[in-house]
Each structure stands twice: as C-alpha cells, then as structure tokens.
Amino acid sequence: MGKVLCLILLPRFLLAALMLWLLDFLCIRRKVLLKMREQGSSRDDPPVCVSDSNKMFTLESLRAVWYGQKLDFFKSAHLGFIAPNTEVVQLKERRRVRVLDYVKGRRPLILNFGSCS
C-alpha cells in the first residue's frame, strides 16, 4: 500500500514543491517587487519577501505539504461522492444512529457542528 500511495501522491507533491521553489526564486521576487514599485502600491500592501532567510522551499514546508497530501488522500468525504454514513448519538434518547438515517427524500441534510464550550 505504501508504494502505491507514493505513486499516487508523488505528482501532486512534486507540483507543490515546484511552486514553493518558484516562489523563492530570486528573479521572480525581484520582478514582482519592481512591478509593485512601478505601480506605486501603498505601504499597507504586505511585502512579497521580508528577507532572504524567509524562504518557502524548506524541508519543514515540504514535510508539511507531504503530510497534507496524505491527509487529503485518506479522508472519507470527497466532493461529488456519497457522504460517509458515520455513527452519531441522539441527544434525547442517547441511542446510536447513522447520519444518513436523517435524510428525507431529496432534501439536503445539513449538519451543524456547534461549540460546547
């Protein structure tokens, strides 16, 4: 399973790594900064790069991208697919039911995840 997962995630990971590298590429940053100066942007605009030590293409960022890609791959809910039918507990009767037991006809089912604090 590990090799198959790597083959599936590798193209997406490499594309994200390439984008991070492009963001750090000094010539692109200089061009963007020069265009901002030419356009006379206000001082309220956030800087594109604060310093040369402020890099996006680092080992830590690549690890975070890989971890995010894995989480995305293994999630059970995907856009356009059938919703996962997870188990929930009714508050009044304290019995376990499935989320999709509350679906009525073609009406959309809305879940509201509120805060208990």
Summarize the topology.
Blueprint: H1 2-24, H2 26-39, H3 59-74, E1 87-89, E2 96-98
Antiparallel strand pairs: 1-2
Helix pairs in contact: 1-3
InterPro entries: Iodothyronine_deiodinase (IPR000643)
Organism: Hucho hucho (huchen)
Function: Responsible for the deiodination of T4 (3,5,3',5'-tetraiodothyronine).
Q: How would you describe this structure to a colleague?
A:
There is one protein chain. The chain is mainly alpha-helical and 117 residues long. It has a domain at 1-41 and 54-74. The chain is built from three helices and two strands, in the order αααββ. It has a two-stranded antiparallel sheet. The chain starts with a helix and ends in a 19-residue tail after the last strand. The model has no long low-confidence stretch (mean pLDDT 78). Belongs to the iodothyronine deiodinase family. Keywords: Oxidoreductase, Selenocysteine, Thyroid hormones biosynthesis. Responsible for the deiodination of T4 (3,5,3',5'-tetraiodothyronine). GO terms for molecular function: thyroxine 5'-deiodinase activity.
Short structural description:
The protein contains three helices and two strands. With 117 residues, it is mostly helical.
